Structure formats: C-alpha cells, structure tokens
Amino acid sequence: MGKKALNVSSLLSRRLHDDRAKEVVKQLLAKDQDGHIVGHIDLRHHGDAYKSHRLLLGMGVDKSMRQQGLGMRLLQHAIEFCRQQDGIDWLDLNVLSANTPARNLYLKAGFEIIGEMSDCYRIDGEQVAETSMTLSTSG
Ligand SMILES: CC(C)(COP(=O)(O)OP(=O)(O)OC[C@H]1O[C@@H](n2cnc3c(N)ncnc32)[C@H](O)[C@@H]1OP(=O)(O)O)[C@@H](O)C(=O)NCCC(=O)NCCS
C-alpha cells in the first residue's frame, strides 16, 4: 500500500480541559483505499485534573501495513495536534519493554525514556517490564 492510499481522518476532538477519566480527546484513523481502518492513534487524559497538561498515547497499525512508514506518519500527526493545543505540554506513553518495534518508533520520533517498571505485569506467569516515555509538545 503506497503512501497516497492513506487517509488520516480525525474523528473526535473534544474540549481538552475537561478531565473526565481517561476519555479519548482525539482519535486519528488511517484508512486504506477501501475505507478499512489500518491504523489508529488514541490520545487520552490521564484521568487526573492535575495532569490535564499531559496526554497519554496509544496506537496500532494493521499487521499487513507495518514497516511502511504508517506508524510514523500517524505519530507525527498526533504530535503536531498536541503542539497546536495551548494547554498540552507533554505527550506520554507506556510500552512493554520487549516491544522493540514500538520502542524504536517512539525513540525515532523523539520520545525520551523516563523510566522502566520491571515486573509490571505477570503474563502467563512471566514477569513483564513496561517502559514509560514522554515528549515535550510545548512551544
Ligand atoms: C509499533 C507499530 C505501531 C509500528 O508501526 P509501523 O507502521 O510498522 O512503523 P513504521 O513503519 O512507521 O516504522 C517507523 C520506525 O519504527 C521502528 N520499527 C518499526 N517496525 C520495526 C520492527 N519490526 N523492528 C524494529 N524497529 C521497527 C523503526 O525505527 C522504524 O524506522 P525505520 O523504518 O527507519 O527503521 C506497529 O508495529 C504495531 O502496530 N505494533 C502492534 C501494536 C503496538 O505495539 N502498539 C504500540 C503499543 S505502546
């Protein structure tokens, strides 16, 4: 699928200073030529009124579309959206430490690692670590 097939649509855009818990404030969808969703980004509040200057990012790209630049394009849209919001100064995310594709993507986009929680999850009895990352979107 070439770059021209991508249509990034913005579904939801709500007032950024309402602090309803973890509500999606922005969703970006990438659709292929047939209108099928092949990638998404959700931006949410942390669910804490004192953290309303930060948003939390989650994303995914359909397996058939990976490693073709779509994840980075979506991420750049999301970062630009945050930069344009006066009250949003940080974009945060959490990623499983073993998720090399996602970690590489975020590092390449400029995110910094701010910490790692070892044994964050127990999945099938295995200790699984999670890495927290952030990007300044102020100024
Ligand atoms: C992480 C994910 C969104 C990346 O999307 P993508 O469209 O494949 O990413 P891109 O093609 O834009 O790649 C951008 C950069 O990410 C990194 N990357 C992507 N896939 C990679 C892989 N398989 N191995 C290593 N690095 C990878 C590279 O740095 C790449 O830059 P490069 O092409 O110059 O090497 C995708 O793999 C995915 O949806 N994974 C499952 C869901 C998930 O992990 N979501 C994140 C949860 S926090």
What topology emerges from the helices and strands here?
Layout (H helix, E strand, L loop, with lengths): L6 E7 L10 E8 L5 E8 L9 E8 L8 H15 L5 E7 L3 H9 L3 E12 L2 E11 L3
Parallel strand pairs: 4-5
Antiparallel strand pairs: 1-2, 2-3, 3-4, 5-7, 6-7
Bound molecules: coenzyme A.
Rounded Rg: 15 Å
The strand line-up of the biggest sheet is: 1-2-3-4-5-7-6
Order of helices and strands: EEEEHEHEE
Strand content: 35-45%
What is the β-strand count? Answer: 7
Q: Compounds present?
A: coenzyme A
Q: Shape, please?
A: globular
Distance between the termini: 35 Å
Please name the fourth-level CATH homologous superfamily.
Gcn5-related N-acetyltransferase (GNAT)
Number of helices: 2
> How many domains in all?
1
CATH topology: Aminopeptidase
Quick check: average pLDDT?
A: 89
Structure characterization notes:
With 139 residues, the chain is an alpha+beta fold. It has one domain (3-136): Aminopeptidase. The protein contains 2 helices and 7 strands. The protein has helices spanning 70-84, 100-108; strands at 7-13, 24-31, 37-44, 54-61, 90-96, 112-123, 126-136. The chain has a 7-stranded mixed beta sheet, with helices on one face. β4, α1 (70-84) and β5 (90-96) form a beta-alpha-beta unit. It is globular. Mean pLDDT is 89; it is low at 12-18. Bound molecules: coenzyme A. Coenzyme A (COA) binds next to β4, α1, β5 and α2.
